[in-house]
Every structure is written in structure tokens, then in C-alpha cells.
From TrEMBL:
Highest taxon of the lineage: Bacteria
Gene that this sequence comes from: mazG
Keyword Hydrolase among record annotations: yes
Record-linked PANTHER family: NUCLEOSIDE TRIPHOSPHATE PYROPHOSPHOHYDROLASE
One GO MF term attached to the UniProt entry: nucleoside triphosphate diphosphatase activity
Record key words, sorted: Hydrolase
Record keyword Ribosomal protein present: no
Pfam family, one: MazG
EC main group: hydrolase
All residue ranges annotated as the NTP pyrophosphohydrolase MazG-like domain in the record: 37-110, 176-235
Protein name: Nucleoside triphosphate pyrophosphohydrolase
Lineage per the UniProt record: Bacteria, Pseudomonadati, Pseudomonadota, Alphaproteobacteria, Rhodobacterales
EC number of the protein: 3.6.1.9
Length: 274
């Protein structure tokens, strides 16, 4: 086909990828699966690819980063191709928009403002610029613009960060810890006396305050939970390995034995680190 030289030109860069996507979406000659997709059906893959990049970073898997970043870039190309087909935007307009935004938000680099300021002042300036942008979009509320589709824990963190900017915040982490104790007590009471939806509500309140504690401690809650997930996975796999040495599986064991093996796995980790 006439476009094949570009498709197979490994030096063609982003233009090659854009053409590949255009061909995949071609109604007459493209891939049936790709043709059927829309923004909503592709969105979960976009989120998944972003998390896979984060996972590779968490694991220090630098040999995987090239591929994971490519997968994430493909998501942008996919959405821009669909945007072009619908007449909303295209790849070049998306690039132009983000480039304009970065220039506007960094007047100390691309404009006449001085770079002689602290990181904290630069952050404050950044937030002021973003607030002005939201005002230009008729987003007047403090919490406007925090995406509803974010993972709930991340959105809780962002909502609380926005509220804190206008002074709606506890003065230090000790007050948040007191609130956690209060919410835990309310959850215990709900579990004993209330219906399932009320228990869920109280559990959500506790999670929300935990996200706030993360912010006060300077911790990214999603990253902290990913790390905890990875530790649990690693240690439970260690339990399974110790059971396998005995010719057993978790189904052949009981809680007391697996708990003892869990402690043994933890001791092995501590010994290896010391």
C-alpha cells in the first residue's frame, strides 16, 4: 500500500506511530477491534497503562520503562486519532495546547520572571496560575476541576489538598490522628448497630481521613498503598514457597500455620536487610 514506506520506517518517529493508528482505525482497511473502540472503551486501558508505568518505576524496572512509556504514548495517540475523526481535536492541537500551558505556567523559565525563588514559592505561583485558568473556565468553586474519574484514594487526596489551600485544614497531623480514632470508633459502632450502607459510609469516612493523614505526612497515598500491596504479595508468596517445601499448599494449611510462616518470612527479610 502507498503508506507502507512510512509504516515500516523505523526512523520516522511520532509520524510513523500516528500513521499506524490512522491505518488501524481506517473504516475500510483497518483492524475490526480498533475500529469499534471509542473514548469510553479505551479509557480503562489508558488508566491501566499509566499504572504500569508507575509500577515499573516503583520496582526500579528501568529495562521495562521504554516499553511501558510506549504503551502509554499509544493511548494518547489513540485518543487523538478518535478526536480528529470526531472533529474535536488532533494530535498537533493537543501538543500545541500542552506546550502553551507549560510556557504559561513557567514564566520564570520562559518569561521575564526571576528564577531566584524557592521551590515552595514556585509551587505557590503554579497554583495561582492554575486557579486563574480555572476561573477562565468558569470553575469558580475551590473543588472544581478535580476529576471525578480519578481513583477514589487519589481524588480524596486532591480534594483535601484543594480545601487546605483556602484554610480548611487541621493545623497538624496530631489532629488528623485524633479524627482517625473517632472515625474508627464510629465504624465499630456502625458494624454493631447499623445497616450495610451505613457501615460502608463510615468505612469511607475512615479512608478519607487516612488520605488526609497521608497529605499531612507528605506521603502519596496511592504510592503507599501500592507499596503495601507489593509487600503483602511478596510475603504471601514467601508463605506459599515455605509450604511448598513441605509439599503443601495454602489449602492444605490453616491460619495458625500460615501466620507462623508469615512471621518467618518477615524475619528472613529483616535478616537479609541487616
Amino acid at each position: 500500500m502507498p503508506d507502507d514506506p512510512l509504516i515500516h520506517d523505523q526512523t520516522a518517529g511520532i509520524e510513523r506511530l500516528l500513521e499506524i493508528m490512522r491505518r488501524l482505525r481506517d473504516p475500510a482497511t483497518g483492524c475490526p477491534w480498533d475500529i469499534e473502540q471509542d473514548f469510553a472503551s479505551i479509557a480503562p486501558y489508558t488508566i491501566e497503562e499509566a499504572y504500569e508505568v508507575a509500577d515499573a518505576i516503583d520496582r526500579g524496572a528501568w529495562d521495562e520503562m521504554e516499553g511501558e512509556l510506549g504503551d502509554l504514548l499509544l493511548q494518547t495517540v489513540y485518543h487523538t486519532q478518535m478526536g480528529e475523526e470526531a472533529g474535536h481535536f488532533d494530535f498537533q492541537s493537543v501538543v500545541r495546547a500542552i506546550s502553551d500551558k507549560m510556557v504559561a505556567r513557567h514564566p520564570h523559565v520562559f518569561g521575564e520572571e526571576s528564577r531566584d525563588k524557592s521551590a515552595e514559592q514556585q509551587t505557590a505561583d503554579w497554583e495561582a496560575i492554575k486557579a486563574a485558568e480555572r476561573a477562565g473556565k468558569a470553575q469558580q468553586g475551590t473543588l472544581d476541576g478535580v476529576a471525578v474519574g480519578l481513583p477514589a484514594l487519589l481524588r480524596a487526596h486532591k480534594l483535601q489538598k484543594r480545601a487546605a489551600r483556602v484554610g480548611f485544614d487541621w493545623p497538624d497531623a496530631s489532629h488528623v490522628l485524633d479524627k482517625i480514632t473517632e472515625e474508627a470508633a464510629e465504624l465499630t459502632e456502625a458494624q454493631e448497630q447499623m445497616e450495610a450502607d451505613q457501615v460502608e459510609e463510615e468505612f469511607g469516612d475512615l479512608l478519607f481521613v487516612m488520605a488526609n493523614l497521608a497529605r499531612h505526612l507528605g506521603i502519596e497515598p496511592e504510592a503507599a498503598l501500592r507499596r503495601a500491596n507489593a509487600k503483602f504479595t511478596r510475603r504471601f508468596q514467601g508463605v506459599e514457597a515455605k509450604l511448598a517445601e513441605q509439599g503443601k499448599s495454602p489449602q492444605d494449611s490453616d491460619l495458625a500455620e500460615m501466620d507462623a510462616l508469615w512471621d518467618a518470612v518477615k524475619r528472613d527479610e529483616w535478616s537479609a536487610e541487616s
